[in-house]
Amino acid sequence: MKHDIDVIVREVGLRDGLQIHQTFMPTDRKLAWIQAEAAAGVSEIEVTSYVPAKVIPQFADAEEVTVRSLGIPGLTVAALIPNFRGAERGIDLGVHKLNFVMSVSRTHNMNNVRREREESVADFKRIVELVRSQPAGKRPILVGGLATALGCSFEGRVPVDDVVRYAVALAEAGADELVVPDTVGYADPAHVKRVFKAVLAAVGKLPVAAHFHDTRGTGLANVTAALDCGVTRFDASLAGIGGCPFAPGATGNIVMDDLVFMLDSMGLRTGVDIEKLVAVREIVRETLPDIEMHGAIARAGLPKNYVGAAARAAA
Amino acid sequence: MKHDIDVIVREVGLRDGLQIHQTFMPTDRKLAWIQAEAAAGVSEIEVTSYVPAKVIPQFADAEEVTVRSLGIPGLTVAALIPNFRGAERGIDLGVHKLNFVMSVSRTHNMNNVRREREESVADFKRIVELVRSQPAGKRPILVGGLATALGCSFEGRVPVDDVVRYAVALAEAGADELVVPDTVGYADPAHVKRVFKAVLAAVGKLPVAAHFHDTRGTGLANVTAALDCGVTRFDASLAGIGGCPFAPGATGNIVMDDLVFMLDSMGLRTGVDIEKLVAVREIVRETLPDIEMHGAIARAGLPKNYVGAAARAAA
């Protein structure tokens, strides 16, 4: 982490947000979004997913998006991988970070990747071997993602012990980092504390990121709870795009612009310029006029006489 | 507090929400809203404001709304009072609770009630005397409200020392309870903790409630922070109605339905039936079709296999 950053915010809207949007966002516009957000100070962006284009046509341009994003100075370029083949594609492209995901809920994992959870752990081990077999300069950071860790649309609440079990399994298999997502927006701050405290206690010094959806309005409250546990890496999507296939009209990921405002207002430096970030919304709005956009700070503006975290830290 | 309630949620939409809405809500519809929300389990409702009807025509029916609300069994009927005359009106009507409000920000107090802050404290002392001169059965609970405690649209951030000074002044004058509002939606969880910790430390055992607006998306995160300080009384408005005159499209108070969901999901009993509460939104929607309504739980529904706080406590 850079010495002048307290919390890393990571844009996932191009993957998690766009994956349920039927209209293809032209590659040039994706790049415009990525470039503008990087210029606003967002240091890590999940730019695409290496799923087959026939499964999610939105990601038919995964190669081009990756390669062009890698040309942006200072940006950590991440991509989701559903399996070993995805890891191979990412490594061939030279992507910086591979976000592997399995589900802690058995039913969700079976539905999503047609695998028992132990099979997914075994897949992850093979990916670790693949990554480690690369020459030093070509090794991506490998992230283990625990989908449904905070609730499952099939099973409801997921036992904390199960989350810990698979967090430890991915950590022991060789993950460089973990991410604990509230895939369907079920979490509340009390449960967030229970889960993150347990996971953090179990995996030692491994970085653990949080990934919240704002489906039921608790997204930023959950961020507050995770901050209290010591979490300093958060996923979000610009304008909260994404929605939820099970909840019409719901927001998707927590709103990046509101997240950055809240953190900044708390005195936590993100390295992001809020006003530049809010301006990036126009790129999405122009390109996808039918996409639902959320966010309070874009409507309400900054408070009177607002002084951001960086200025306060420097004063 | 009832032994089976952990957190008291208080409806303020009929006052704080409706006061900036130009269309008069017919008295019968206000009562339908109040009755339905009381039936859903909300135990305290700020039903009106005793400001002159020529100032805010929405409250031209303050007397009738108060009297009819007092007929609802078990409901604590509260009303806002801007001054001594308002207190007299409330006492004549037999209202249960008088919510006096002054602003911690000097500029805001001058603009709002044309008084220096010390003059407002003096007004409050006169109101305390009036209340205490009533026979025992006719004495309302008197609340001291500290508007702009968490930020002011004229002055920006308000010094914590000023909040403490006027909290102590109202407490020493004889308030039965205090409420600390984020009048214009400037607060973040870190600042909430600073302010509430300082106020709670200064006023001893006096109950201190929180009143948040969700103007910049941080409302429920601020609730989480206040809960961490030990606050157990929260204001909210159904569907977040209210808006902000300075921020078009912004929500008003935090959304009652989302607040109740979050608390309930955390295992904190509110005594409110979420599904009955969400159903009350229809009364507002039918009556005021042009009012902007917010809220995530009404769109997304409860999580799969959801078990509420009361059932968990009983299990």
From TrEMBL, chains A, B:
GO molecular function, one term: acyltransferase activity, acyl groups converted into alkyl on transfer
The keyword Transferase is annotated on this UniProt entry: yes
Database matches in CDD domains: DRE_TIM_HMGL (cd07938)
Alphabetical GO biological process terms: ketone body biosynthetic process; L-leucine catabolic process
A UniProt-annotated Pfam family: HMGL-like
Domain Pyruvate carboxyltransferase: 7-278
Entry keywords, A to Z: Lyase, Metal-binding, Transferase
Similarity section: Belongs to the HMG-CoA lyase family. Belongs to the alpha-IPM synthase/homocitrate synthase family.
Alphabetical list of NCBIfam families matching this protein: PRK05692.1
Full protein name: Hydroxymethylglutaryl-CoA lyase
Organism (species): Ramlibacter lithotrophicus
